[in-house]
Amino acid sequence: MTIASILIFAAIYGDTPDMKHAWAVHDINRPKPAKVEVNSKGVPSDAIVLFDGTKESFEKNWRDDKGNASKWSYSKDGYFFTVPGWNNGGNIFTREEFGDCQLHVEFRHDPSNIITDQGAQMRGNSGVFLMNNYEIQVLESYYTSKDAEGTSQYVNNYADGQAGSVYAENPPMVNPAKKPGEWQVYDIVFHQPVWKGGKLVHPGSITVFFNGVLVQDHWEMEGLTTHCVRRPLKEHVTKGPLVFQDHGCIVQFRNIWYRPLPSRWANLTHSNLSACPEKVMELRRETAAKLFAKIKDPKKASADNIKALAEVISYANEGEYAASFWCALEAYRAKKGSEQEVKSVNAALGVLIRNKIIPESAKIK
Q: What mean pLDDT is predicted for residues 94-108?
């Protein structure tokens, strides 16, 4: 019998729920993902737009470190940028605070405004700070060695401080930076460290696509962003602002949006890592109750009834559900249907037997 024919008759055919998984493998009852549309600008319909190019968006969503209007400048060409000179503008913060996310940021270095006489780390320096704690470096990094540009004292940057680096921790795997004057793109997937009872259970991770090229591949954080010295991870609040750094350089930003992401560690009903058996069983019983309520006569001796009840007890093999299953099965066994129908019933029973929910003797001979 083929899998396709089994599917016609049996709602269950993969491994059943267990104490860490509320859903079966290939579970038709598992909720379907929400629909998301992507517009012509590449923004998903479930994204929170932090800057859409308008002055209204800039003034509404961004602030200084004290909650006041930012001193950064807005351009009618659809971007905002740092005010030149140290501490004139200060860092810029989102009013929105969030944690785990997918983040899209576009930035540009104006060739006429790149400092060339104050050292490599002054060449269009800024930074994307997630939760104000974890920095992806922003820097003019098309030229990264003294040989490439010929101005020996200005462009020989350290690897963990160039564009695409997790600053002071991990350089980008490759350098896909564009020349100054071209818009560049970061697409970042961020998961913050997870602490439970004061103990670190996962360091979190950052994945970065730089101009469409993977440069940070699920990098697990070693510490909070630092300069010169290592700062170990430390428990902090689970939501914080997105921050762009004022490093005394002019850097332009546009098209900024994020999508909040659920933490894998917050999944209490379907995860080898974090499932809570009590929560799993609660959801399994809820599903069993919904399926059982659809059965008009649970004790009726029919193939469809047995298969429906087999699905119910795959979630909760207990009480009224189990009693109804065995009652219907024994009644059907006494007056079974055609050979093909029996095969379809045994296919459903076989899944339960394989998963040790019922004994081998339950099969219909």
A: 98
For residues 81-100, give the mean pLDDT.
Answer: 88
Tokens coding 42: 């590449």
Q: Roughly what angle, to the nearest 10 degrees, separates helices 277-293 and 319-334? A: 50
Domains of the chain: 3-22+269-362 (no CATH), 48-266 (2.60.120.560)
Total residues found in the chain within this entry: 365
Contact 254, 106 (CB under 8 A): yes
pLDDT surpassing 60 at residue 153: no
User: Could you tell me the two tokens for 102?
Assistant: 């997918």
Structure tokens at 45: 């319909």
| E strand segments, 227-274 | 240-244, 252-260
Q: What is the mean pLDDT of residues 343-350?
A: 93
Strands 194-196 and 184-191: unpaired
* 8 A C-beta contact, residue 58 and residue 229: no
Say which residues have a Cβ less than 8 Å from residue 17's Cβ, sequence separation at least 6.
23, 24, 27, 280, 284, 314, 315
pLDDT tens, residue by residue, 161-205? 999 999 999 999 999 999 999 999 999 999 999 999 999 999 999
Q: Are residues 124 and 250 in contact, defined by beta-carbon separation less than 8 angstroms?
A: yes
Using an 8 Å Cβ cutoff, are 119 and 139 in contact? no
Contact 24, 16 (CB under 8 A): yes
Contact 259, 48 (CB under 8 A): yes
The pLDDT assigned to 148 comes to: 60
CB of 170 closer than 8 Å to CB of 230 = no
What the block records as the tokens of 155 is 């462009």
Coil vs helix vs strand at 3: helix
Mean pLDDT of the chain: 92
- What pTM, to 2 d.p., does this model score? 0.89
Q: What is the mean pLDDT of residues 246-271?
A: 95
| 138 in Cβ contact with 127 (< 8 Å) | yes
Specify burial of residue 300 (Cβ count, 10 A radius: 0-12, 13-18, 19+).
middle
* Cα torsion 182, 183, 187, 192: sign: positive
* Mean pLDDT in residue range 28-48: 96
Residue 59 neighbours by CB under 8 Å, 6+ apart? 69, 74
pLDDT at 8 over 60: no
